[in-house]
Specification:
By secondary structure, the protein is of the alpha/beta class. The chain is built from 9 helices and 8 strands. The mean pLDDT is about 95.
């Protein structure tokens, strides 16, 4: 296989945990892959560091947070995910550090996944488009927490709370990365990924004047088609996969 071609994602796993900063992060990145995985009988849980309460300029956080939580739960259901957790870190000022690592390690211990999914943890989106501090903090903390979860001497209070160490994370897959290594055929789940992103209607309507469905379909289709030339001509969701 040529070095610049994307490899198929590992298939020998049953449970995945997706950890991101905000509602809509997964829908912009990898919901088509999630839809295909749940169709195959795999279990996916979503964990969000915040409720996205600072995400809509025209809506105060006290009203925005519950609305975006509702949209996220509906969005997850479209692609077969029924379990969505919120860690209640403050949107916009999520801090990388032990508190965030501990909360994510606790989620990993609760759900015991073989695959952990997160979003781009690097400074940019590949050009001059700057990434947000929340994405950097949560992405990096998720990579670290995948190891923390298996070490009983890091955050020993989790063991005292009944969360036994889990050293079963085999891969961390980063969506939206500038350096993808693997990919998943997006075709079976693409239509549902469009509907999943469309569930974030309040956010999208505040973001763009374009018709919401046209916006969602155009954005997601362009993303997966851009990966096709590196995946045998197949529209694909791309990940950078770190092995543990």
């Amino acid at each position: 296989m040529p070095f610049d071609q994307l490899q198929p994602m590992p298939e020998d796993w049953q449970r995945a945990l997706a950890v991101v900063a905000h509602p809509d992060d997964l829908e912009y990145g990898c919901a088509a892959a999630v839809a295909g995985w749940t169709d195959a009988g795999r279990e996916i849980t979503y964990v969000l560091a915040s409720r996205g309460e600072a995400g809509i300029d025209t809506l105060e956080p006290a009203k925005c947070g519950p609305l975006r939580e509702q949209e996220q739960r509906a969005s997850a259901a479209v692609v077969g995910v029924s379990e969505v957790e919120f860690l209640d870190h403050r949107d916009g000022v999520i801090e990388y550090g032990p508190a965030l690592r501990r909360d994510i390690a606790a989620a990993i211990r609760r759900h015991r996944p073989e695959l952990v999914i997160t979003l781009n943890h690097r400074d940019t989106w590949g050009t001059t488009v700057w990434n947000t501090p929340d994405h950097l903090a949560v992405g990096r903390a998720t990579l670290d927490a995948a190891g923390d979860a298996g070490n009983r001497w890091i955050f020993p209070e989790l063991t005292e709370q009944g969360l036994a160490p889990w050293d079963g994370v085999r891969w961390v897959a980063v969506s939206g990365t500038i350096s993808p290594t693997h990919a998943v055929d997006a075709r079976p789940g693409l239509e549902r990924s469009v509907r999943s992103l469309l569930e974030h209607r309040a956010y999208i309507e505040a973001l763009t004047d374009e018709d919401p469905e046209q916006y969602c379909r155009g954005f997601l289709t362009a993303n997966v088609e851009a990966n096709a030339q590196r995946f045998g001509g197949i529209p694909a969701v791309a990940f950078e996969v770190f092995h543990r």
